[in-house]
Amino acid sequence: MRASALIALLALFITPPATAALKEGAKAKEFSTQVAKAGKPEPFTLSTVLKKGPVVLYFFPAAFTSGCTMEAHEFAEATPEFAKFGATVIGLAADDITKLARFSVEECRNKFAVGVATKSIIKDYNVALPLIGRTGRISYVIAQNGQIVHVHDNMNYRGHVTGALEAVKRLHQPRK
Predict the structure, then answer these.
(1) pLDDT tens profile 26-52
(2) Domain limits at 63?
(3) Which of 36, 38, 40, 58 could make an S-S bridge to 139, C-beta 3.0–4.6 Å?
């Protein structure tokens, strides 16, 4: 069995309870990591991107697994709508940057960046998927002031994009 298939199978049976460490109203933890957008690796620092507007930070278990691919497609389709409200979408997984660079092209359709969820980021955001060393599926919307305004903690990819978009719309009026 391929590793990605095993991860997807385990994620179905080892679904942690809703335990996102960062609750609505909490301050998002600062972090830096390497991301890829349109196949090009680049540095990412949360505080730098927050200067431009809110951030939709979503964690996913593994690139190229079925649920993660479907979620990436939904985020890619919604990226122009997020941009109307000044929001940046970033996905993080415990994959290497080479795999994520391919995922950013093939599944994220060059629309948004995906990056490496380091052990410290996984710990700070309490997104560890038990036993398999991966992240669970948790989405945060972080306002420009660094406050968490929306949390969606569910291994099912459905609802993450719509919930995040609703939260972003509540934060800002569309840009003209």
Answers:
(1) 999 999 999 999 999 999 999 999 999
(2) 3-171
(3) 58
